[in-house]
Amino acid sequence: MEDNGSGWPVGTAPHCGAGGKGNTSSRVFEVALQNSSSNRSSQFSGVELLQSYKPLIIPCYALVVLVAIFGNYLLLYVICHTRKMHNVTNFFIGNLAFSDMLMCATCVPFTLAYAFNPRGWVFGRFMCYLVFLIQPVTVYVSVFTLTAIAVDRYYATVHPLKKRISVSACTYVLSGIWLLSCGLVAPAVAHTYHVEFQEEGFTICEEFWMGQEKERLAYAYSTLFITYVMPLSALCISYLCISVKLRNCVAPGHCTQSQAEAQRARKRKTFRLVSLVVAAFGICWLPIHVFNVLRDIDIDLINKHYFLLIQLLCHLCAMSSSCCNPFLYAWLHDRFRAELRKMFNCHRRIGIHTNNCATASVVL
Prior knowledge:
It is a single chain. The radius of gyration is 23 Å and the shape is elongated. Helix content is 73%, strand content 3%. It has a two-stranded antiparallel ribbon with strand order 1-2. Strand 1 and strand 2 (202-207) form a beta hairpin. It has 13 helices and 2 strands.
């Protein structure tokens, strides 16, 4: 399972390349077959090692998927069913939850099936191109939405008197995020090929950049900057400004000792939450980006025997970010937990206190 040019591992073939379609498909087939044959012994040992860890890897992935889908679904449910939550901040958080759910639904099952199936890609040509489009799009959408949330919170905290964007403008921003994400993955999709090795009995679905190594590296490093360096910088700068603003903020009037202590407790909680948000994003996505950079610099820097296992573990770490987001952006907020309990209590008492359920509201 080699990594594709965009940095999201789903395949089993080595990197090559291709220009246009048409007769280049046969060239892709020949180069892929040649590279596959030359590295067959080392690849086989890597696949054999990966198969031995299958009983451990699959439950870990299953846990990530269950937690991510359940947590993000509850977050979306509360936002959609609570009218007073229909504001800009919560729409951004809802978009993040939706993209995280879609990321888990597309990245995880197909990655596992492709990694462990000896026949390679078994989902057909159409799904090959569809999955290779949706997977990176959801990653782009998630990181762009995280950046938008950080900027939104920055203006809400540091510049509270400035006019914030309207709900209609938020809709345009979210639409732009999805359109931009689709545009950024176009080069990867244009170099994606579905190749069948009938005699060998397996099929690959991979990016091939034959004769375009400089272009592939440029795309790979720009992807690294856009999906990691830029959003991480935005998170750090925005939340650093928020922390400084809160630290220097002094409540008007004379505070009692208990009020001052409560204020300090709120500030400490905010600082911890901000630190967790930055750390979660940085830590979850760091391994896969380090892996990709090492592979692009010199693939021999990574032991071929452990290549596939390391790659899959890095991918698992990246996918775990979708589990962290609902907790960081909702579950750790007292108001959200109270609202969720209220909604569950309303469902239990449905038919008795139905009118009370309609008044549920929370703003994250």
